[in-house]
Amino acid sequence: MPTHTNLAKIKPAIWIGMICILFITTALLQCAQAEKKLDCGCQRLDKAYGSLYILFERTGLAIEDKKTEPAIWLRLRNNTTCPVTLRTTGYRYLFDGKIRWDVLEGEEIGVYFEFQKGETREIYEYRDNFALVRLQPGISVIFKVPARYFKVKRFICVPVEYEWEVGGTRHEVLFRTDMLPRGWEKIISPTTSKSSKD
Length: 198
Prior knowledge:
Elements: H1 12-41, E1 52-64, E2 67-78, E3 84-89, E4 94-95, E5 98-99, E6 107-108, E7 114-117, E8 120-123, E9 130-135, E10 140-146, E11 155-162, E12 171-176, H2 190-197
Parallel strand pairs: 6-10
Antiparallel strand pairs: 1-2, 2-10, 3-9, 3-11, 4-5, 7-8, 7-11, 11-12
C-alpha cells in the first residue's frame, strides 16, 4: 500500500533548497522581463558595436594653447535608438547665432572628457562653463585630443547620459589610447594640417 510523505518530516535542508530554487527562478524571470523591456525601448542600431563607441578618425595638426601640434581626431557615435546627452566645453552650443541642442552628423565639437590612468582621474581642459547637447539615434560627432596624450597608455572617458536620465545616472564611453592604428605618429594629413591653421 503506497505511503504518503509527511511534509512535517521533510528535512529543513530540503526545505531551504526548495525555497532557494524558487527565489532564483523568480529573479531570473524578472531579469529576463526587464531586459526585454529595455531592448524594446532602446536597441542597438549596429549589433557589431556597443551602444556608444569611439573610433579613430584621423591625425593632423591643430592649434592648442596658441601652438601648432599633432592631434588625434576621434569619432563618438550613438549606436542606439534613443537620444543621449553629451557635455561640451564652452558656454552654449551655437549655430548661426542661435542655440541648437541637436548636433549634426559628423560635426566637430569640443567634447568634455577625462583621462583615466590606473586610479588617477584627470580632467582635460577644466572649465567652469559647459553646454549640454543631444546626439540623436545613429548620430556621431568628432572631437580632437592632442597627440601627446597618446604616448602613455590611458583611457579617454567621455561622460554621457540617456535623455531620460539627465541629472541622474552617468555613463561613460571609453577609448584606450593604445587602440590607434600602428604608425599613427607618422600619419599627418596635409589637407587637415592646412585647414587647422586657417
